[in-house]
Amino acid sequence: MAEQNSSRGTGSTAGGRSGSFLNDTRVRAVLYQILTIGAVVAIAAYLVNNTLTNLAARDIATGFGFLEREAGFDISESVIGYTPADTYGRVLLAGLMNTLKVSVIGIVLATLLGTIVGIARLSNNWLVAKFASVYVEGLRNIPLLLQLFFWYALIQTALPHPRDALQPLEGFFLSNRGFRFPYPVWETGWTLALVGLALAAVATWWLNRRAGRIQGETGRRPNVIGPAVALFIGLPLALWAVAGAPTAIDVPELTGFNFRGGARVTPEFAALLVGLTLYTAAFIAEIVRGGILAVPYGQTEAAVAIGLRRGLVMRLVLLPQALRVIIPPLTSQYLNLTKNSSLAIAIGYPDLVATANTSINQTGQAVEGVAIIMAVYLTVSLSISAFMNWYNGHIALRGGRK
């Protein structure tokens, strides 16, 4: 009897310990996470296995080996050199560069336009404020795809054919085939000139930082504008001259029903850029307006009281403080513009999605093609977010000081 009671007591104790182990919230939390991860991995493994089985049953090749095969199709424009004899990997790279080109230019233009319109909405001039309000409310509430169709159709119908092209200056032609203009025959001198511009920008940034440090120590700010202008003009010219000072210019000319030579802005690129810029600028304008209104009005009163003009109040007092409110939502708009550029396929601009779609149609490897598109947009979006988060942290107040 004693042994039975002892064994029962031991069992009861073990059961109690087991129950207390499962009742621990931390243990349950870890257990639930393990079970959730296991379920996700199992579902993913099932989907991958099912996909590979179906592809094998249809005799469809898998993997990314197709990227090394010849593409065999041309695209209307490319930032980098590309011919139909190049590989699928090359044409996808060309599409990515086209996407980055329109995204970067669109972000810059939308930021400038959105800032101007946002400030205009706060103007004391009734007509300026109402015009800015109509612009914001109108463009924000029209789907972007319809706006792209509108701008593309406008360019195609409002501009003349190449034979009747508008010619504002000698060598410049504007028609429904795009805008053609003279362009230097690219040689080493022009590459070095661009390097000079980049070096001048870095040197100007360093001079500006140095001037700010000296101003904080002495109260006097050294002149930066003069040296900056000299750097931006002198350094590129010097490098251009060292490389032989190339001056050959490729001038466009009409041959048959279209132009050849020079550089061009295609109708597809122009319509996409205008649509993305105007649409995104409408949202940025509201972000800028809200950021300015978030600054206490006492800041404006104090600036006016010491004799600052309205323009200086906005530039030196309100915008620097509003920037800390503006940056986080502005990041979202930059991401939206980059992702909205995928609508380029609707008007024939050869961006990443368009080139990948043609590659998928020719190779039948849809899974790999879509995976490449998703990976690229994810990488670009995370890069933009990382940069904007860094900048937001750079301008954030620390301990009551910048």
Features:
two-stranded antiparallel ribbon, amino-acid transport, transmembrane transporter activity, single chain, MetI-like, 7 strands, mainly alpha, 12 helices, MetI-like fold, Amino acid ABC transporter membrane protein 1, PAAT family, AA_ABC_transptr_permease_3TM, 3-stranded antiparallel β-sheet
Mean pLDDT: 87
Give me the strand/helix succession.
Answer: HHHHHEEEHHEEEEHHHHH
CATH architecture of one domain: Orthogonal Bundle
The CATH H-level superfamily of one domain is MetI-like
Chain-wise SSE layout:
Blueprint: H1 2-23, H2 25-57, H3 88-120, H4 126-140, H5 144-158, E1 173-175, E2 178-181, E3 183-184, H6 188-218, H7 225-242, E4 249-250, E5 253-255, E6 258-260, E7 263-265, H8 267-294, H9 297-305, H10 310-340, H11 352-363, H12 366-395
Antiparallel strand pairs: 1-2, 2-7, 3-4, 5-6
